[in-house]
Amino acid sequence: MEQTLAIVKPDAVARRLTGQILAAIEERGLRIAAMKMIHLSRTQAEGFYAVHRGRPFFDSLTAFMSSGPAVALVLEGEGAIARWRELMGATDPAKAAAGTLRRRFATDIEKNAVHGSDAPETAAFEIAYLFNRLEIQGG
Ligand code: ATP
Ligand code: MG
Asked: Is 52 considered catalytic here?
C-alpha cells in the first residue's frame, strides 16, 4: 500500500486547525499509519527541504517551518500520494480549488497549512527523515 508524508505546518497548528485537517484526512479514506508532534530546528528544516536549497524562498520557508510545533503523519492508502496532494490543493491558496485544505486554511503561498510528498522517492526520503520503523503502525 502506498505511503506519503504529511505535515500540518506550524501556521495551522498555531491556529488550532489540526483537528479539522485530521478529520478531512480520515473522511478522504486515508489511513493514519503514524503521527507525532515535532518542532524542527532550522538545520532540520533545511535538511527536510534540501531540494529547495537555492530557491529565493528557501530561507523564509525554513525559518517558517522551524518557527513552532507541527504535526507529522504517515498516510497510507491506494494512490495516497496523489490523493493527499489533491486534498491539499495548489501551493498558492489563491489557485487552490474550492474545498481543498489550502483554499480553506492557508494564509498565503508560504504559510499554506499542509505539506505532502510529491513522488514515491520523496515520500520514502521524507518518511525516513521524520519517523523510525517502530513508529509506523501496520493496518
Ligand atoms: P509542500 O512541499 O510543502 O507540500 P508544494 O509541493 O505544493 O508544497 P513546493 O514547490 O514543494 O510546493 O514548495 C514547498 C513549500 O515552499 C510550499 O509549500 C510553500 O510553503 C513554500 N513556497 C513554495 N513556493 C513559494 C513561493 N513562491 N514563495 C514563498 N514560499 C513558497
Ligand atoms: Mg513540495
From this structure: no
Separation between Cα atoms, residue 89 and residue 98, nearest integer Å: 9
Q: Which of 113, 88, 118 lies closest to 9, judged by CA?
A: 113
Q: Which residues line ligand 1 (CB under 6 A)?
A: 57, 61, 91, 109-110, 112, 115-116, 118
Burial class, 108, CB count within 10 angstroms (exposed 0-12 / middle 13-18 / buried 19+): exposed
CB 13 within 8 A of CB 35: no
Residue identified by cell 525516513 is 128
What is the β-pairing status of strands 70-76 and 114-116?
Answer: unpaired
Question: The pTM is what?
Answer: 0.97
Q: Which residue in the list 115, 116, 117, 126 is annotated as catalytic?
A: 115
Nearest to 108 by CA among 42, 56, 64, 44: 64
For the stretch 91-124, pLDDT in tens is 999 999 999 999 999 999 999 999 999 999 999 9
